[in-house]
Design brief:
It is a single chain. By secondary structure, the protein is of the alpha/beta class. It folds into two domains: about 5-210, Spore Coat Polysaccharide Biosynthesis Protein SpsA, Chain A (Alpha-Beta Complex); about 220-315, no CATH class. About 45% of the residues lie in helices and about 20% in strands. The chain contains twelve helices and twelve strands. The strands form two sheets. It has an eight-stranded mixed beta sheet with strand order 3-2-1-4-10-6-11-9. A four-stranded mixed beta sheet has the order 5-12-7-8. Helix 2 links the parallel strand 2 and strand 3. Helix 8 packs antiparallel against helix 9 and helix 9 runs antiparallel to helix 10 (about 275-285). The longest helix is centred in the C-terminal third of the chain and has 21 residues, at about 250-270. The protein is globular, with a radius of gyration of 20 Å. The N and C termini lie far apart (about 50 Å).
Length: about 325
């Protein structure tokens, strides 16, 4: 296939020796009418990830570019590093512990963006995989549709799976100077990419591994200090981003309040009533429009054990 590179598949890795081969194999399996490259940033892995990446680079020197960071950049610094090396007009994204399951994924997303030239971002549904079991997630219906910034902000958790992203490369120029300092990238990539909306494709074309070895979610699962630091970081940078999206002030306030409410839930399970009340007050301060969860927490704020029991029953009946 001759011609310019149209899509750059950007991948970031850190200690993902168990997953990286599967990730790369499924990217290389893509069937397209255009040229694409793979740009991989390894953030100082200490396991066998680098050796595996070098083997792939030597096999496909014209298609795979590996950046071996000399110093640890962190997830978002690593993201920016691979974005800066991308040569395609479009960027697709896949973290090293996720993988694609549709060989036409890139072609379908590229075609959708070409048919909608005013839109810069495309995503799709995915499977979440845990302990070998898959569950359909990020499912917003069975038809293609357009979503907007307010939709991203009004989802309590993550809006779209990162392995589903495709967007125009010029979006990289819109990312704020503080992007590398924030502990998450997905939310802010969505916000700065979806000024004109984002195309949703209903087909699940990727798999997101839950609590994969070496993932950030695994790192914070049992570390309350990392959990707290992460959430305060997210709230801080949501507040900074809010100034650039004046049209969505109320939506940003709701999102920030939900960050604090998530902290409240964690501290209920930690049986730390003082911090539960502290961050409930922060949520109340940020947003005057209380969600159902926020109303419940306020009504029972002096009876956190009752809230704990409600969460326990809810999780029990969802099994």
């Amino acid at each position: 296939m001759v011609g310019d590179i149209i899509v750059s598949v950007c991948c970031i890795t850190y200690n993902q020796e168990s997953y990286i081969d599967n990730c790369i194999e499924n990217i290389l399996a893509q069937e397209t009418t255009f040229k694409f490259e793979i740009v991989i940033g390894d953030d100082c892995s200490t396991d066998a990830t680098r050796e595996k990446l070098e083997a792939w680079r030597l096999r496909f020197p014209d298609q795979i570019n590996v950046i071996y960071n000399e110093n640890n950049l962190g997830p978002n610094g690593n993201i920016l590093s691979v974005f800066h090396q991308a040569r395609g007009a479009y960027i697709a994204f896949c973290e090293g512990d996720d993988y694609w399951i549709d060989n036409k994924k890139l072609q379908k997303q590229y075609d959708s963006l070409k048919l909608n030239p005013n839109i810069d971002f495309c995503f799709h549904s995915a499977f979440m995989e845990q302990n070998g079991q898959r569950k359909l997630s990020f499912n917003y219906g069975s038809v293609q549709k357009i979503f907007y910034i307010n939709d991203v902000l009004n989802v309590v958790g993550q809006f779209a799976p990162t392995a589903s992203y495709m967007f125009k490369r010029n979006i990289c120029e819109k990312l704020p100077s503080w992007f590398s300092e924030c502990c998450i990238g997905d939310l802010f990539l969505e916000l700065y990419s979806m000024g004109n909306g984002g195309i949703y494709l209903p087909e699940p074309m990727s798999v997101y591994r839950v609590n994969a070895v070496g993932s950030w979610s695994e790192a914070i699962k049992n570390d309350i200090h990392k959990f707290t630091s992460r959430h305060l970081n997210i709230a801080k940078y949501l507040l900074l981003a809010k100034s650039q999206f004046a049209k969505y002030d109320a939506d940003f306030d709701k999102k920030i309040a939900n960050v604090y409410l998530n902290m409240c839930t964690r501290f209920i399970f930690e049986r730390n009533d003082k911090l539960f009340l502290c961050y409930l007050n922060e949520a109340n301060r940020v947003s005057e429009k209380f969600t159902a969860k926020q109303k419940l927490y306020n009504r029972l704020k002096y009876f956190p054990r009752i809230i704990y029991f409600i969460h326990y029953l809810n999780s029990f009946f969802r099994k």
